Amino acid sequence: MSLPRPTPGNARTLFGARAIAAACLLLTLASTPALAFDLNSNEPIKVSADNARLDDSQGIVTYTGDVVITQVNTRLQADKVILFRDENGLNRIEATGSPARYSQPTSNQGEATDAEAQKITYSAPDNQLIFENNAVITQGNNLFRGELIHYDTENRVVTAEGSGSSGEGTGRVEMVIQPRNTTQQGN
Q: What are the distances in angstroms from CA 12 to CA 25, 113, 122, 132, 178?
C-alpha cells in the first residue's frame, strides 16, 4: 500500500490510514491458525531431502537438497534445513533457500497463508516465526512485504522492518489489503 508523504495538514489522516491498514492485516492473519508447525501435536513431522546429517551429541540434524518438511497440511520447502533438538524435543527449525517457502492452509476454508524469504526460522520456546531477507507473506490477494518480519504465533502479532534506503526495492514495509467483500463494491 503506497501512502503519500505526511504534511502538517494530512499527518493525522495518514496515521489513521496506516493504523487501519495495519489493523486489517492483523485481522487477516488472526483469522488463520498460528503460522507454525505444532510441536505439541501427535501428528508426525515428516522430512524428505537429498542428504541428511545427524549429530546426535549436539542435537542437530541438517538436511540439504530440495528439503520438504510437512505436518498434516503445513509445508516448508528449502535448499537447507537445520533441526535443533534438546531434552524437550524439537525446539528450532532454520530453513534457507532461494527462497525458502512456507505454506499453511486455514482451518476455516479461507485462503491459505503462504510465505517466502531467504531465511525462515521457527523458535518453539519463543513462539516466533522469523522471515528474513526479501520476506513476503500472502493470504489470497493480501500481501505483506518487508526485509524482516517477526510473527508471534501465540499472541498473533506481526512486526516488520524495511531495509532502509540501502538494497533493492523501496526499502519500506509494504501491505496490500483487499476489501472484505468485493461483490458489494458496485452496489
A: 20, 32, 37, 31, 23
